[in-house]
Amino acid sequence: MSEKTIFKKIIDKEIPAKIVYEDDLCLAFQDVSPQAPTHVLVIPKTTSLKSLDDVDESNQALIGHIFLVIQRLARELGIAEEGYRVVSNCGKNACQTVPHLHFHLLGGRGFAWPPG
Ligand code: 5GP
To answer: Which residue from 20, 33, 45, 62 has the least number of CB within 10 angstroms?
Structure first.
């Protein structure tokens, strides 16, 4: 069996994280190295999805659920009105560092476009 990722250890409560939302399917917690005043990671609890590239039709409901959670969190965290950014780094060129599907929810400041 492959070694647990840092995110799986957070799901299993083996290492601490500032959790802002949890249900049967997903977990949201503050990024340890925030890139904006609000920087939350939203992840599925399943370990079968290493990145967005692993998602298929069988995961449609899960991904839709996660995006509704992201929308709700943006409202609850007070960043919806001014605007926010959702990012999923997928693979080497996108600088993905943790091989467990995750969505960055960033807000509380203005963002540049195009991204770096
Ligand atoms: P990626 O670069 O894969 O898109 O994003 C991984 C994110 O996980 C980074 O923003 C990084 O700061 C965050 N991260 C890495 N290790 C930990 C940790 O142990 N706890 C928390 N809360 N975030 C982490």
So the answer is: 33
